[in-house]
Amino acid sequence: MLVTAKDVLAEARAGRYAVPAFDCVEDVMVRTILETAETLRSPVFMMCLVPDLEGNGWTYLPGLIRAVADRHSVPVVLHLDHANELDSIARAVGCGFSSVMIDGSSLPFEENVKLTRAAVELARPKGISVEAELGHVGGMDLEALNRRENVLTEPEEVARFVEQTGVDSLAVSIGTSHGVYASLPTLNIACLRELHAASPVPLVLHGGSGTPDDQIREAVREGICKLNIYADCRIALGRGLRQAAESLRRPDPLPDDLFGAMRRELAAVVKEKIELLGSAGRYLCRPAGA
């Protein structure tokens, strides 16, 4: 069932678990992630990045997720990830997203507030949840061309930012990075405790791929309610693709020959993340489509 981020994150915060959020492209990812979440009775964010929506992607990808979300009994959030322009927020509102993220984290505080508040004013009248980022989660961009440094979130800025913007959730920087790590991170859990105590809204952690499991568990215990995951999914798909290429024996391969290993590898990662975050078993399921 399609829901907003506000619907699921309030329960996650109260229950001290986190909801997995997967950036996804194409139907292989959409079906595998949703069916795995359904089997494990976990809420899930299905996230779309703006570069993957260019052209007809704005119709295909959110259209597919919206069409199948209500065939599942677990809560499904259709989320626009890392938009940094209001035009993208407006387009997502028109395409039926139930949640959006506006990323002004590279801007000075007051400019971040201005951009975020404008996004809230676009989304709130439609009942759409808004996530923002304070501090900056660095790392490599998707093209692996540029690396940005982390800027830790300042606890004393949190309440003021939330009050001035009206956001429903807040992504914070405590030591993770986007993409594949060059070396393992050490999360600043002491800072996270202060952020959680200061924040009136649920906290989000980006850069969840590759972060050691023990640190993720501790971050969830200390207030993280949503974890963004993408690189680990891409790595899993790559493993499956290599397996498929090595095993093809016929000139006219069947769909399972082509995609089966990719689905199995991705499903294993999705299951691992759901169980790691403590979101498994949070919702009773009816048969899909009932």
Mean residue pLDDT: 91
| Number of helices in the DSSP assignment | 10
SSE string, helices as H and strands as E: EHEHEHEHEHEEEHEHEHEHH
Largest sheet: 8 strands, parallel, barrel
User: What Rg do the Cα atoms give?
Assistant: 18 Å
Write down how many β-strands occur, each being a DSSP E stretch of 2 or more residues. 11
Amount of beta strand: 15-25%
Count of structural domains? 1
Going across the biggest sheet, name each strand in turn: 2-3-4-5-6-9-10-11
- The CATH architecture is Alpha-Beta Barrel
For CATH, the homologous superfamily is named as Aldolase class I
Q: Unreliable stretches, pLDDT < 50, 5 or more residues?
A: 286-290
Q: What name does CATH use for the topology? A: TIM Barrel
Percentage of residues assigned to helices: 40-55%
Structural class: alpha/beta
Shape designation: globular
Terminal Cα span? 12 Å
Task: Give the CATH class.
Answer: Alpha Beta
